[in-house]
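INFO  loader      accepted 1 record
INFO  loader      residues=425
INFO  predictor   begin
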Amino acid sequence: MSFWQLIRDKKLFRLLRVRWSGQFTDGLFQSALASFVLFSPERQASATNAAVAFAVVLLPYSVVGPFVGTLLDRFSRQRAILFSNLIRAATLLVVAHFIYYEYPGPLITAVVLIAFGVNRLILAGLSAGIPLMTTPQNLISANAIAVTGGSVWVVLGGGLGLGLRKVIDAVFTADHSDAFIIVAASLGYLITAFLAARLTRTEIGPRPHEIVKGSFTQGLREMQEGFQFLKEHGDAARGIVAVAIHRGGLTALTLTALLLERNTFNDPANSDAGLAGLSFTLTIAAIGFVLGALIAPRGVSVMGRHRWMRLSVIAASISALTLVIERTPFLLAVTAFLTSLCGQSVKVTNDALVQSKIDDYFRGRVFAVYDVVVNGAIVCFSLIAAKILPLSGDSWLLPLLVSISWALVALIILRPKKFFLKNVV
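INFO  predictor   done
INFO  writer      dumping tokens
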């Protein structure tokens, strides 16, 4: 099937609308949160602050990760997604209340941790459900549509948040504006919950005969089973590591872009200009995400999954060198586009590679491992970036280190002798 035929597939679209509406709302919420934490006129943005913000966002993903797969393999994923969206809506109302009335930062952080922890369950459940909503032949295209479309909707949600903030800022203070936008995001999650309620109880798994029996507290042990399963499928495990390191490097470059737009390309006192500049760069990156997903099925059909992934990582490594030459708005946009294009092509291809090797009985647990590994890499790279980047963000060293790490992934982790385990596409 073509992309357009898949989008018109009523069965798959039932899942896509849940994912995309939620990710559109994610963008709206995250734009308000970024504005409050990193682009508030009263707060100075630094690499350390930004790295801490990334850690706060991803910490719950890693903490709940061992138990996400357990939950998704034992209970209706549809019910888990429905109730998780209701919880997100409630937590955002609390966050908005705390921001509006200027509660201490630790209280806001605690509630935000809950909101993002719940989000991990939602995305893992939707990813695990894709193979049940399409055919094995269409897995790469379905993943491309789901993941890349989600990234685009996140950017669109962020753009809406930026536009709303400019309108509301004319009447209220910056923090109050952010609180109102978060209330709007809470309503968005309620809409997502309604769309999730339209799915049937077992439509995205697990099916009755696939439900795992036993105590929920076995999560850590079953996390080990997920790792053990990947040990037996080395190409899938190596693909996950490749995606993790690429996403980590992309996070480091995102921190670079944030500081360049906030403190170098624009007047640090004009936080709105910095936020607008970062939004533009992220939009360019989103275009790269879309094109990367569009070309992935064609590249796989010509070269095979393994070779396509390896060449994509090599191309990403070369494209990161653009920022080593010089840091300008134009070169930043070029780097954002190319690294996103290559990285998304790797991601959607590897998702299909992993899904093709996993029975639904194990899928929840393996995707929990996938998420924890990727999020761990993102946190590590963000902390490294915080140590290297100056306040201005103007550094040639960090993009060089990112390029080298990606080159090592292509040359060592994805080397043909180890990665091409079977002569299959």
